[in-house]
Design brief:
The complex is a heterodimer of chains A (545) and B (527). In chain A, α3 packs parallel to α11 and α8 packs across α10. The radius of gyration of chain A is 23 Å and the shape is globular. Chain A has 545 residues and is an alpha/beta fold. The longest helix of chain A has 18 residues. In chain A, a hairpin with a 2-residue loop joins β9 and β10. Chain A starts with a helix and ends in a 9-residue tail after the last helix. With 527 residues, chain B is α/β, with parallel strands linked by helices. Chain B has 3 domains: 234 residues, Growth Hormone, Chain: A (Up-down Bundle); 34 residues, no CATH class; 241 residues, 3-Layer(aba) Sandwich (Rossmann fold), CATH 3.40.50.150. In chain B, β3 and β4 form a beta hairpin. The chains are: A alpha/beta (545), B alpha/beta (527). The structure holds flavin-adenine dinucleotide. Flavin-adenine dinucleotide binds next to α3, β6, β13, β16 and β20 of chain A.
Chain lengths: 545, 527
């Protein structure tokens, strides 16, 4: 929340926000070396959890009836809404806590460029993900089809060259793959790489008796063969140790990939999830990206469903049934308007609960999680958007630092087609993966804006000594529960496997139900939940999944 | 020295005499203001000279400011290692800053072109200046420490420091660059630093007690005064070193450095040091670029030129009376201004850009094209070679498809396509990329002495037929010569290549490979 938006919202809103924002107010830097860099900690409401636990919400004084209520406007909730609207099912409402929908795929914009706050790209979808393809066609991303009928994606939106580079040993190297990193002279590394790549190919080509892949997107389409599922019992690190792969650059690379996709390290990622990253997509896969990242998808979905969306609504209770006379299988959802401070009760025949699952115990009446109680754990993330007066020389789209706890930065203006040099926005990502999420989260919330600025600049200056003179503005977003952690035993454990089971009239949808935080999974669960609800209510539709 | 914990501010054997203290303090505060101004001026000078010599002012300024600030930090840090004779050392530093900063312009100008790695000299010099400047303020603060409570001192010194910076940032663009010139400015501000050294020498005679210091300060002062007097001469000499021929025009735009040289009626245009044309043979390049395509169009009413802000391609197009309107799109207003406004240079394009048939647009081509609703019968694509990923985007399937959407039925595009001899893969990659964009591509080439063998592609929807009739007034093309341009000798014959897409930009690699092998930098000739 920037100071300016706070001022525009008026006193009541400011009070509501103040309750939610435990982060300190933005401070302007006094350090003369940094004079002129402005910015703040923005967005995300960290005190929500506290509020949900502590209770003390006003009694709803108003009641509304809808057929279906969707709780949460992240990609899962929006995708559920998209499917309902597409099927001509219009009697529904979606409640979102923040002032803008989109969740982890939200984006921002300033006078230089739009930029992502979380999700920033989408790989070209495999055939197992027809709903993703359907959406991309709708978005106009597929101007033509090849002779084989396969879609040809618009090259404007496929990530342009140069895509990746990594700063290692004091210099930038083009490309970011195990191959690009390995020192061909290093003893044994070539052999290890060959073994690693052979394993990737083997898992990629694996098909079970019913033709399912070893690692599919969505996760639900993956094989349940014991041999593959057993990989979930050990960590990726264990896998490497057992295989005798000790090459440092290779371990770094795989650890980087785990941090990048899951916010977990080699030690805390299950081998199943680790291999999923490498083997669920075709080799040489391309990816789609936009200046605002997956914010482009959010906007597309909103263009279709915005009339049903209410933002600034904190859902604090989801209950089953309401006294005598209420229709069987009904549900009620209580939410407080964070701007006005008043509460509303929605009565619906079905609810789609599209919040991260760790909230369910505090929000849903009588909810007992299947399996272990605290199986769903999340990694916190810090994301900073840096407005720079010009791009660092030869910047690629994704710029990774080898010696860094961060993931480097992505260039928001990379897809623009100008030749004139100009200002840009760099999105800097840092998963807070050690020592464990709880400690990292506490530490994260203690840091002030100045602390983050020092941290980001110190990190980037190893590759860009001049970075401080380029930066004009830095906004920081703190994600307390950013990504589900696929720790060993989670993906194929009972808690996740049974996460789809409905609770009374409530259906669930969220990317955490896959154990893997990506758009495709969020969309899959959203669409699936919407279809289940329409089935329950007898609304005819065609399936997208 | 490390280990000596409490540094003495002034030599304890020479305590300041009270009657002089007020005057000295005031002099030192004036020094703060002066050295702050000088410090910023050196930084601005280095940034401006680097932009002038290397082009791309944003990059140059940003990196210079970064390195300079960093070096100042190093200087401030180093100041802790000095703990005695602060006054004497301060005077030494002032002399050094005065000399190093004062001669920075001539050093940078003369080393460019003389020394292989100019950037080493540039950043080395900037670092040295920065470190010295970084030492100044900490020294002054410590010297003044006894005169004021810390709170007053910091507020006084820092406010004067910032005031000095303000003065410099106003003086520099408003007076120094336009009136005094880069060369003389550096000498003048070196002189100011030395004046600080000189008055400190006199006022603190008793504290430093070293007469030879005063002598050194005066010697340096005289040296820089001489430099200031002779700076016009130095400027002329330095430019002569940069180019073989006398420079008759030079200006840095936000995008590039534009320089024109002239000798015996031959005018050459350089962008960032790369030759763009020589007036002796540019007609060959431009006739070959324009007429084979243009003459093949049945009714060429609307023409579009992308790049080519020098107006030469437009001049050729205007020779064809059938053309009613030409839109010229070039990124850099400095380029187009020269070739519109300046009589001498506008004569080179026959005042083409002043013609009522011509419309000038300064814009980034791809972005402009996306927004433009026009349809054209003839399009000239005359961009710089694809030597980086930004320019490479203007040679992709996406760009050619976009262009094709602006082409009227029966229309033709002509594309400058680098040298098929030097970078054979790059040339055929452009040909194949045009084909992959759903157009017919017909390659040809011409010989331009200052460039060498140069390649072009005509792109059209319908099959292309080499024209037999050309407008009057051509010096190079005849029907027979034109037919021959479409024949490729064995050493420029097609090679198998990949198509250039936005997401592979393979052309940039091909181009670099070709020109590296030729061990020359593209386009054609550089200093
Ligand atoms: C830093 C980062 C980078 C990422 N990068 C990528 C990427 O490049 N590509 C990719 O595919 N994925 C990426 N992801 C994963 C991303 O999480 C998913 O793509 C997707 O956005 C998840 O959507 P979701 O609906 O499952 O969850 P969420 O985004 O968590 O949605 C939950 C929604 O519920 C709302 N909410 C929470 N509590 C309440 C309440 N009490 N009442 C009402 N509403 C509430 C939240 O505000 C939020 O909008 C990234 C994630 C992060 C954090």
């Amino acid at each position: 929340m920037t100071r300016r938006t706070l001022l525009r919202m008026g006193p009541a809103a400011a009070a509501a926000v103040a309750v939610r924002c435990s982060s300190p107010p933005p401070s302007s830097p006094l350090d003369p070396g940094r004079a002129g860099i402005t910015g703040a900690i923005v967005g995300a409401s960290h005190a929500t959890g506290h509020r949900l636990r502590e209770g003390g919400f006003p009694e709803p004084r108003e009641t509304r009836d809808v057929s279906v209520i969707i709780v949460g406007g992240g990609m899962a909730g929006l995708s559920a809404a998209w499917k309902l609207s597409k099927s001509g099912f219009d009697d529904y409402a979606l409640l979102e806590l923040e002032s803008e929908a989109g969740g982890n795929s939200r984006s921002g914009r300033n006078d230089v460029s739009a930029y992502p706050w979380g999700a920033h790209y989408l790989p070209v979808p495999p055939p197992e993900a027809p709903a993703v393809r359907e959406l991309l066609e709708e978005m106009g991303m597929v101007p033509s089809y090849g002779a084989d009928g396969e879609p040809i994606y618009d090259p404007r939106h496929l990530c342009h060259a140069p895509q990746e580079r990594v700063f290692v040993d004091g210099a930038w190297r083009d490309g970011l793959s195990a191959q690009d990193l390995l020192d061909p002279e290093g003893t044994g590394t070539v052999a290890v790489l060959t073994e690693f790549e052979a394993q990737v190919r083997a898992y990629r080509n694996y098909r079970d008796a019913s033709g399912r892949r070893a690692f599919a997107i969505p996760v639900a389409a993956s094989t349940t063969d014991a041999e593959i599922v057993a990989l979930d019992d050990i960590s990726m690190r264990d896998y490497f140790d057992r295989a005798g792969w000790s090459s440092e650059p290779l371990r770094w690379y795989v650890d980087y990939c785990c941090r990048d996709d899951y916010g977990c390290t080699l030690e805390t990622t299950s081998a199943w999830a680790g291999w999923h990253y490498f083997c669920s997509r075709p080799a040489e896969g391309q990816y789609l990206t936009w200046p605002e990242g997956n914010g482009r998808i959010v906007q597309h979905l909103l263009d279709r469903v915005a009339d049903h969306v209410r933002t600034g609504m904190l859902v604090y209770r989801v209950g089953t049934g309401g006294g005598p006379g209420s229709p069987t299988g009904a549900t009620e959802v209580d939410a407080v308007d964070t701007v006005r401070g008043t509460a509303v009760r929605y009565r619906a025949r079905r609810a789609i609960y599209a919040l991260p699952r760790f909230t369910a115990g505090h929000v849903i009446d009588g909810y007992a999680p299947p399996g272990a109680p605290d199986a769903f754990t999340y990694c916190p993330w810090m994301v900073a958007n840096l407005t720079v007066s010009r791009l660092p020389v030869d910047a690629a789209w994704d710029n990774v630092l080898y010696d860094s706890p961060s993931l480097g930065y992505v260039v928001a203006t990379h897809q623009n087609l100008r030749i004139a040099p100009g200002p840009s926005v760099l999105t800097y990502y840092r998963p807070l993966s050690v020592p464990n999420p709880a400690v990292a989260r506490t530490w994260m919330l203690e840091q002030r804006w100045d602390d983050w600025v020092s941290l980001v600049l110190a990190d980037l200056s190893q590759a860009h000594p001049e970075i401080e003179s380029l930066v004009r503005h830095i906004d920081v977003m703190l994600w307390g529960h950013a990504m589900i952690r696929p720790v060993p035993g989670f993906v194929w454990g009972a808690s996740r496997r049974r996460a789809e089971e409905p609770h009374g009239a409530i259906r669930f949808a969220h990317s955490d139900m896959s154990g893997i935080s990506i758009f495709e999974e969020a969309q899959y669960h959203g669409v699936r939940a919407a279809e289940a609800v329409m089935r329950d209510l007898g609304h005819a539709h065609t399936s997208s999944v | 020295m490390p280990g000596t914990m409490s540094p003495e501010l002034m030599d304890p054997t020479n305590p300041p005499s009270t009657e002089h203290a007020g005057l000295k303090t005031r002099a030192l505060l004036v020094s703060v203001f002066t050295i702050a101004t000088c410090g910023l001026i050196y930084e601005l000078l280095a940034g401006t000279i680097a932009s002038y010599l290397l082009g791309d002012s944003v990059t140059q300024f940003s990196t210079i400011i970064g390195v300079y600030l960093f070096a100042m930090g190093v200087g401030s840090y180093l100041s802790r290692y000095f703990d005695r004779d602060l006054i004497a050392r301060f005077i030494v530093i002032e002399i050094l800053v005065g000399v190093v900063g004062g001669i920075s312009s001539p050093v940078l100008f003369f080393s460019f072109g003389q020394i292989q790695s100019f950037r080493v000299v540039l950043y080395g010099w900037v670092t040295m200046t920065g470190i010295l400047v970084g030492l100044e303020i900490p020294f002054l603060i410590r010297i003044l420490e006894d005169q004021f409570p810390l709170r007053d001192l910091v507020s006084k010194v820092l406010s004067l420091d910032y005031l000095g910076a303000l003065a410099a940032s106003l003086l520099f663009p408003l007076w120094l660059v336009p009136q005094v010139g880069l060369m003389r400015s550096s000498f003048v501000f070196g002189v100011l630093n030395l004046l600080v050294a000189v008055w400190t020498c006199h006022l603190f005679r008793r504290e430093h007690g070293r007469p030879w210091l005063t002598a050194q300060a005066y010697a340096a002062l005289v040296l820089l005064l001489l430099g200031a007097v002779y700076s016009d001469d130095l400027t002329e000499r330095s430019e002569r070193l940069l180019y073989e021929d006398p420079v008759i025009f030079s200006r840095a735009s936000p995008y590039q450095r534009v320089v024109l040289t002239q000798r015996d009626g031959e005018v050459r245009l350089f962008l960032n040091g790369d030759l763009q044309f020589s007036s002796l043979d540019e007609y060959r390049y431009h006739e070959a670029l324009v007429h084979p395509g243009l003459a093949a169009v049945a009714e060429p009413r609307q023409a579009l030129v992308l790049g080519g802000g020098d107006g030469m391609a437009v001049r050729e197009i205007l020779k064809d009376d059938r053309v009613e309107h030409v839109t010229l799109v070039d990124l850099d207003p400095v380029m187009t201004d020269i070739f519109v406004d300046h009589d001498g240079f506008a004569a080179l394009n026959d005042y083409a850009l002043r013609s009522p048939r011509v419309e000038l647009v300064n814009a980034d081509a791809f972005v402009w094209l996306d927004a433009d609703a026009g349809r054209y019968d003839f399009i000239v694509v005359d961009f710089p070679d694809p030597s980086n990923f930004s320019l490479g985007k203007l040679y992709t399937t996406t760009f050619y498809r976009r262009l094709a959407a602006h082409l009227n039925p029966g229309g033709v595009m002509a594309i400058q396509s680098t040298s098929p001899l030097v970078s054979r893969q790059a040339f055929w990659c452009i040909v194949d990329t045009v084909r992959a964009s759903g157009l017919q591509a017909t390659p040809y080439h011409a010989s331009v002495p200052t460039f060498g063998e140069w390649g072009y592609v005509v792109a059209s929807r319908e099959p292309f037929r080499v024209p037999e009739r050309f407008p009057a007034g051509l010096r190079f093309l005849t029907p027979a010569v034109t037919r021959a341009l479409f024949e490729f000798p064995a050493d420029m014959a097609p090679v198998p290549v990949e198509v250039n897409h936005l997401n592979n930009q393979i052309l940039v690699q091909y181009h670099a490979d070709g020109w590296d092998q030729y061990s020359r930098t593209p386009p054609p000739v550089s200093e």
